TrEMBL record:
Pathway terms, separated by semicolons: Amino-acid biosynthesis; L-arginine biosynthesis; N(2)-acetyl-L-ornithine from L-glutamate: step 1/4; Amino-acid biosynthesis; L-arginine biosynthesis; L-ornithine and N-acetyl-L-glutamate from L-glutamate and N(2)-acetyl-L-ornithine (cyclic): step 1/1
Residues of the active site: T199
Site (Involved in the stabilization of negative charge on the oxyanion by the formation of the oxyanion hole): T123, G124
Localization, UniProt: Cytoplasm
Protein source organism: Paenibacillus harenae
Organism placement in taxonomy: Bacteria, Bacillati, Bacillota, Bacilli, Bacillales
Pfam families (UniProt xref): ArgJ
Keywords in alphabetical order: Acyltransferase, Amino-acid biosynthesis, Arginine biosynthesis, Autocatalytic cleavage, Cytoplasm, Multifunctional enzyme, Transferase
Binding site for substrate: T162, K188, T199, E285, N407, T412
Principal subcellular localisation of the protein: cytoplasm
Family from the record: Belongs to the ArgJ family.
Name of the featured protein: Arginine biosynthesis bifunctional protein ArgJ
Top-tier EC class: transferase
Length: 412
């Protein structure tokens, strides 16, 4: 397999969520979407997998989140996750809850597992009841579409998309206790992206032997540094969740924070989640470029995170990037309103390698070079506060005319 080497792990270029041992996946079109694109998919593990989940903090939480919390909370194990797109099953009352539980029970029966070993996720339009006749037929057909190869993974990725333009999937491998261990992930997300958890659906598969408690701890810590550091439009959805499943079939000794390879495994999981988070930001609705904001020299990492997310979420900064306008004033204004300690006399700002502000004073720079840089498909903004050692990185995208066009007609 083609690989990109890192110091602690290797990226498997043609890997997928079915690369870790024990996993199959698939998807199909059941009729929830007006188009013929897939809208129902599943990941299935051949053994009870250690499971963990992180969920949206939006007060209005969709019915599938309740089902998934209950499934994972009943024993920390999952055999499958069932996902539909085209309908969020959110704000749908008791009927929506009943539908989510029916989806869980019907798919569990279809694959021959206990209902509490199935998680459910939905994404799409809020406030509409699921067309359960179509969902039932799709669930009955889905087991026959599951496969343990890249095709099965691709069909699953197609099934979870809404306004996304591209599939998002990544896989890495590393050696632990003399065994090859794989970590893979898939995600969807393009709009309603302003996480406090993560505004998206994400799924991580791994064949590492790891307990559910250790996996939950690692997933939460990793989310705070990756999915919680992206924004597209400042809106946190009702349906977002990140679910991880570990089959344990790699045969390594059980991973805990005391294991000699814990840091290497944590780095692999972080790489997968960060790659997916950046892919979501790059694929923001209407976006033409990925924007990365690096904050250095803050009084703490938490302060740096707050400042980075304020800058990346600024509509004025995002608009300036779209217009290739080197308007550093919008950046420093966002820094100043982030609610964190800042010395107004010591701030540096760079656009890539181009310094525009030094010690809070304007610097003469080549406007033509800045324009050319901002026209690229990736823009890095560096803010150095020169106060302490706190640092953080956030990711987002530019704000374009197409974002308004897409969301003005989302239901139609």
């Amino acid at each position: 397999m083609g690989q990109e080497n890192h110091s602690l792990f290797s990226v498997v270029a043609d890997g997928s969520i079915t690369t870790p041992m024990g996993f199959t996946a698939g998807g199909l079109h059941c009729g929830l979407k007006k188009s013929t694109r897939h809208d129902l998919g599943a990941i299935v593990c051949e053994v009870p997998a250690a499971a963990a989940g992180v969920y949206t903090t939006n007060v209005f939480q969709a019915a599938p989140l309740q089902v998934t919390r209950e499934s994972i909370g009943s024993g920390g194990k999952l055999r499958a996750v069932l996902v539909n797109s085209g309908n969020a099953n959110a704000c749908t009352g008791k009927q929506g809850e009943a539908d989510a539980y029916e989806m869980r029970a019907r798919f569990a029966e279809a694959i021959g597992v206990s209902a509490d070993h199935v998680a459910v996720a939905s994404t799409g339009v809020i406030g509409e009841l699921l067309k359960m006749d179509k969902v039932r037929n799709g669930i009955d057909d889905l087991p026959g579409r599951l496969a343990g190869d890249r095709t099965g993974a691709d069909h699953f990725c197609q099934a979870i998309l809404t306004t996304d333009l591209v599939q998002k999937m990544v896989c890495v491998e590393l050696e632990i206790d003399g065994k090859r261990v794989s970590v893979a992930g898939a995600a969807k997300g393009s709009g309603m992206i302003h996480p406090n958890m993560a505004t998206m659906l994400g799924f991580v598969t791994t064949d590492a032997a790891i307990g559910s408690e250790a996996l939950q701890q690692l997933l939460r810590q990793t989310t705070d540094l990756t999915f919680n550091m992206i924004t597209v439009d400042g809106d946190t959805s009702t349906n977002d969740m990140l679910v991880a499943m570990a089959s344990g079939l790699a045969g390594n000794n059980e991973l805990t924070p005391k294991h000699a390879s814990w840091e290497a495994y944590a780095a692999a999981v972080r790489y997968v989640c960060e790659a997916l988070a950046k892919a979501i930001a790059r694929d923001g609705e209407g976006a033409t470029k990925l924007v990365e904001v690096q904050v250095r020299g803050a009084v703490s990492d938490e302060a740096a995170q707050a400042i980075a997310k304020t800058v990346i979420g600024s509509s004025l900064v995002k608009s300036a990037v779209f217009g290739a306008d080197a308007n550093w004033g919008r950046i420093i204004a966002a820094v100043g309103r982030a609610g964190q300690p800042v010395n107004p006399e010591t701030v540096d700002i760079r656009l890539g390698d181009i310094i525009t502000l030094e010690q809070s004073r304007p610097v003469a720079f080549d406007e033509a070079a800045a324009l050319e840089y901002l026209k690229g498909d990736t823009v890095v903004i560096l803010v150095d506060l020169h106060m302490a050692s706190g640092q953080a990185t956030a990711w987002g995208c530019d704000l374009t005319y197409d974002y308004v066009r897409i969301n003005a007609a989302y239901r139609t």
